[in-house]
Specification:
- The complex is a heterodimer of chains A (310) and B (364).
- With 310 residues, chain A is mainly alpha-helical.
- Chain A has two domains: 35 residues, no CATH class; 235 residues, MetI-like (MetI-like fold, Orthogonal Bundle).
- Helices cover 72% and strands 0% of the residues of chain A.
- Chain A is built from 14 helices and no strands.
- Chain A is flat, with a radius of gyration of 26 Å.
- By secondary structure, chain B is an alpha+beta fold.
- Chain B has two domains: 228 residues, P-loop containing nucleotide triphosphate hydrolases (Rossmann fold, 3-Layer(aba) Sandwich), CATH 3.40.50; 117 residues, Nucleic acid-binding proteins (OB fold (Dihydrolipoamide Acetyltransferase, E2P)).
- In chain B, the strands form four sheets. Chain B has a six-stranded mixed beta sheet with strand order 6-7-8-3-9-10, sandwiched between helices. Chain B has a six-stranded antiparallel beta sheet with strand order 13-12-11-14-19-20.
- In chain B, β4 and β5 form a beta hairpin.
- The longest helix of chain B is centred in the middle third of the chain and has 18 residues.
- Chain B starts with a strand and ends in a 10-residue tail after the last strand.
- The chains are: A mainly alpha (310), B alpha+beta (364).
Chain lengths: 310, 364
């Protein structure tokens, strides 16, 4: 009679029987994933780095050393573009966090129809970004757009205003749309974190006389701080690389007013066929985002320790 | 200095009626324990007293003042939660100081009060740590410290020892009793553990299905359980219940067990009728080897001083006897069990007790 507690051989045991060492067996298991990463990530990255040291265009490709980097760093507009990219990122991420926090707080409140409201915040994130942008293009249209019409009605402007035709207004219009697209996910993450906060903490504070605002400041915010930091840093990386909205709205214009690093890279490499210079810009973005990623891991570790998350 | 009066408290969650007209008068400085099985409404009642739940009907009076509609903070109560409810991002000092920070008290006052509470609870050297760095018992002390600094009129405890291991629970029971003596405060304590109830309470409220079964001192509940529920709930191991039929009601209650054994039990049998069935309650510690009930031994647990002997009566009724540790009983043997008839409890068909006439005088 078979022993009821007998179990099947572990995979490593079976591998050993077939003459494979545990190390080789492990490599075999991760080989498909490694191959995938090598083809999809590592090879394009290495190729981009290689191209950045060449003057590759449609016709030729010659080794030029650091010339592309020197040209990029000495370029008159480069610092302006970097500054604009960081400003774009800080403003957009800041707004996403603030609006996301307010949204999550409202969605977390015990209000009737809460489930419906939770569903209603999803469309900006769910619908294809190009379709969302077409909607916003209509809103920003000077002749028959909602924004221009409303601004006129409120007496803010005298006549029709084409939001995407001017440097500043185009830049801020793109940010508003980016916030619209990015906020639902931030809200959902904050909401999930808020729902993870023990009800006992709030009740203990309530018994001690803490009001809503005090409880929000002293319990909710510190308890979800690891998620806030995570979202801030992840959102910063995504926003830094945000391409579609600006490209659909203005393609970096008017007069470069909405050109961020990613737009500049695309225009250089694909628009002007300067693959070498474009690759140098792409490598620069990778370096900046690499620093962000390291910062993310370090800061998150410290925040988790500080806020008592194991 | 606080009395607590509950008047006809009811609570319903939709169609579910959780509490049915609870009336209770708790004296100043009493240590009261609400005990009962899961779902009996004890925690709900505590939360209503705290103001965390609103009663469907009824009044709550603290020191004679109706606080039924008052916010928790205005009731002068503090509460210790089962989960400790400590703020993981704050130090132990700031956790204890939390209620004082809410009141915006000056730092010198906060420091003095936190220091005093920490001294009482032996937490002085832990104040800089975070809750995650403390053991379960220490965390529970921090939660108590947060209650103490507010100098509340009434302390409420919601199963505060449930998350601790057995040894630590024993230590904390002693510490809580000492704390009650030191603070001389009114305390209301919820537990499902009858040992906690028996060892700490001045008086115990036994709740069952949203109603008070009995309210009395631990020894009252032990010697004079008002109902079959209380009789089986209080006392460890549980009281044995053996069915018998009533043969006579003169000079005590004469009953006959299914095995044919007859006994005359000294109880108030004015409500008993000849021919009716009753449950005779016998505590395991009141049984001894001798003539009387017959039991086939199934299991013997020798605990040293006591041999917990479990078996079946001829009619299949399970019974337990706490015999002296070295009693020579073997599994499978048929033994006779005797008892002093004065120790027997009798419950009628409704579960109500027929009061024992020769019960021991209560010492507390």
């Amino acid at each position: 009679m078979a022993n009821a507690t007998q179990t099947k051989d572990q995979p490593t045991v079976r591998a050993a029987r077939r003459g494979l060492s545990e190390g080789w067996f492990a490599w075999m298991l991760i080989a498909p994933a490694l191959l995938f990463i090598a083809v999809i990530v590592a090879w394009p990255l290495l190729e981009t780095i290689r191209l950045s040291f060449t003057d590759a265009d449609m016709n030729s490709e010659n080794w030029v050393g650091f010339a592309n980097y020197e040209k990029m760093l000495q370029g008159a507009k480069f610092l302006e573009i970097i500054g604009r990219t960081f400003f774009w990122m800080v403003l957009s991420v800041g707004l996403k966090l603030i609006v996301g926090l307010i949204g999550a707080t409202l969605l977390n409140a015990a209000i009737p129809g809460r489930a419906l409201f939770r569903m209603m915040i999803m469309p900006p994130w769910v619908i294809p970004i190009a379709i969302g942008c077409i909607g916003w293009l209509w809103l920003y249209n000077g002749q028959f757009g909602f924004a221009s019409g409303m601004a006129q009605r409120l007496g803010i402007i005298d006549g029709p205003f084409e939001f995407l035709a001017y440097k500043n207004s185009a830049f801020y219009a793109a940010i508003i749309t980016d916030v619209w697209v990015g906020t639902p996910m931030v809200s959902l993450f904050f909401l999930a974190a808020m729902q993870g906060v023990s009800r006992d903490l709030y009740e203990a504070a309530w018994v001690d006389g803490a009001g809503r605002w005090y409880r929000f400041r002293r319990i909710t915010i510190p308890q979800i701080m690891p998620v806030i930091v995570s979202m801030a840093l992840l959102s910063a990386i995504w926003t830094f690389n945000s391409f579609e909205i600006i490209w659909i709205f203005t393609q970096g214009g008017p007069r470069g007013g909405t050109t961020t690093m990613i737009i500049d890279t695309y225009k250089t490499a694909i628009g002007n066929f300067k693959f070498g210079e474009g690759s140098a810009r792409a490598v620069m973005i990778v370096l900046i985002l690499g620093v962000f990623s390291l910062l993310y891991l370090k800061v998150l570790d410290r925040v988790n320790k500080h806020y008592g998350v194991k | 200095m606080a009395t607590l009066n509950l008047q006809n408290i009811t609570k319903s969650f939709g169609a579910a009626h959780v509490l049915h007209g609870i009336d209770l008068a708790i004296k100043d400085k009493e240590f009261i324990v609400f005990v009962g099985p899961s779902g009996c409404g004890k925690s709900t009642l505590l939360r209503i007293i705290a103001g965390l739940e609103a009663a469907t009907a009824g009044q709550i009076l603290i020191d004679g003042v109706d606080v039924s509609d008052a916010a928790p903070v205005d009731r002068g109560i503090s509460m210790v939660f089962q989960s400790y409810a400590l703020y993981p991002h704050l130090s132990i000092y700031e956790n204890i100081a939390f209620p004082l920070r809410v009141q915006s008290l000056p730092e010198t006052e906060v420091k003095a009060k936190v220091g005093k509470a920490a001294e009482i609870l032996k937490l002085t050297d832990k104040l800089a740590l975070k809750p995650g760095q403390l053991s379960g018992g220490q965390r529970q002390r921090v939660a108590i410290g947060r209650s103490i600094v507010r100098s509340p009129k009434i302390f409420l405890f919601d199963e505060p020892l449930s998350n601790l291991d057995a040894a630590l629970r024993g230590d904390m029971r002693v510490e809580l009793s000492q704390l009650h003596r030191e603070l001389s405060a009114t305390m209301v304590y919820v537990t499902h553990d009858q040992i906690e109830a028996m060892t700490m309470a001045h008086r115990i409220v036994v709740l069952n299905k949203g109603r008070i079964e009995q309210f009395g001192t631990p020894m009252e509940l032990y010697h004079h359980p008002a109902t079959k529920f209380v009789a089986t709930f209080i006392g460890q191991p549980n009281m044995n219940l053996v069915q018998a039929s009533v043969l006579g009601t003169t000079n005590g209650l004469t009953v006959e067990f299914s095995g044919g054994q007859r006994m005359t039990l000294p109880v108030d049998c004015t409500t008993a009728t000849v021919g009716s069935l009753v449950d005779v309650g016998i505590r395991p510690e009141n049984l001894m080897l001798g003539d009387g009930l017959s039991m086939t031994v199934r299991v013997v647990e020798r605990l040293g001083g006591v041999a917990m002997t479990y078996g079946d009566m001829p009619d299949g009724t399970r019974i337990c006897a706490a015999l002296p540790g070295d009693t020579p009983v073997a599994e499978g043997a048929v033994v006779g069990l005797g008892l002093n008839v004065a120790d027997a409890h009798v419950f009628d068909a409704s579960g109500a007790v027929m009061r024992r006439l020769n019960a021991p005088t209560l010492v507390v």
